[in-house]
Amino acid sequence: MTYTFPPNFLWGVATASYQVEGAIQEGGRTPSIWDTFCEQTGTISDGSSGAVACDQYHRYIEDIELMQELGVGAYRMSISWSRIFPEYQGPVNDEGVQHYLRVLRALRSAGIKAVVTLYHWDLPQYLQDRGGWASRETAVAFAQYAQVLARAFGDLVDTWTTLNEPWCSAYLGYGNGMHAPGIRDYEQTLAAAHHLNLAHGLAVKAIRGVLGQNAKISVTLNLQVNRAASDKPEDIAAKQRADLFANEIWLGPMLEGRYDDKIMQATKEISDWGFVQQGDLEIIHQSLDNLGINYYSTAYVKQRHMSDSSEASRIAASHANPMPAQEYVEVLPPTGQLTAMGWNQEPEGLRDILVEMSQRYPGLALAVTENGSAWDDEVESGGSPFGGEIVHDPERVAYLDAHVRAVAEAIDLGAAVSGYFAWSLLDNFEWSLGYSKRFGIIRVDYENQERIWKDSGLRYREIARSNTV
Ligand code: GCO
Question: Which residue has a Cα nearest atom 6 of ligand 1?
Fold first, then answer.
């Protein structure tokens, strides 16, 4: 059955600055926490970094042409903070501003809307040196950065997204240390979560302060779809505990102006939450024009039964999870055909989270700001309709189709979904997995930076151009 999307539905592709730009020492940019993290041994599985990545800093014209060929209406990209402010409390770097102005103007002339993320994980290193997200000062600096961007880019930006996946910034950055800055400290993790929330609120106010109420503002969360492994009360409790730290810690303050008491209760041995100052929740709770949801897979959880309940084993069990207070939550191994990331495929999870959020926040538009899958691609010589090599990636095509259909089902069930962004336009630097995982609907040959079409790119081109699936 063919499904036709609403006429103004926005089809887009997504990337992030550190994953695609490269040119880390050009245009006055200074190191971010990811440059530093990549230099440490054992942090990135293939020992690589984003130093060159897809070289989009120099190749954005070609990449925008690809977007035109795909027929997408929007590009979700992020700004590298240390290109704009290379030094602590230093002046705005005009070269950085000019670079993004060129990109944004090129998008405008191509008729492609810019959905701009202010923070996709590349914190300036000088801010990390002063405590990073564990320090309140970072949230204040973020507001200043947001104000500068709003003044510089103005209406060239269609939608402003404050943060991408604060879950990853807080828990992978400060909880299990899998991501930059590689810290393992739950107290800092909780402080980071709060300061990310605060940064979001301050940035929304800063942007509206410059551009007025017409500025379209969003945040992107990787809301987890946790399913209880059984209907036993203890497994349901495990799911609720996981939801609390995965989802409620962002949704509560940003959209409802409160932290669920259970979050503080569960972490009272870790922190007294003294970093939450009077008035913070009012700042964080700003009206939003859109909620971005990144979705890849689901997780099945059950209560962990500890054979030995000593303090040491409780702490060990807790540290198995990047989120604090998860010692009684056990995540089951994924089942079915797994992607190259080892993630399960459950398109119904996307449908369910969209419907759930729409019911919980009536009137708030939603967008799927990332969705996609990694597979071990192989290149075949010849066969591209545009000439040259091609990648036949039937698994990625099937994943794409199934998930776009899940969005259609959610809309049918009443969810207010305004757009879908494929992750990713290009294969790129997949964080601690380096270049070993390919998410692109267009391949990048890292030897010569050639862009090679995949079947999934061709399929997305049909979906975007026909507005149907
Ligand atoms: C995320 C990030 C992306 C990732 C993608 C695949 O969602 O983790 O926003 O930068 O590359 O999700 O893991």
Answer: 430
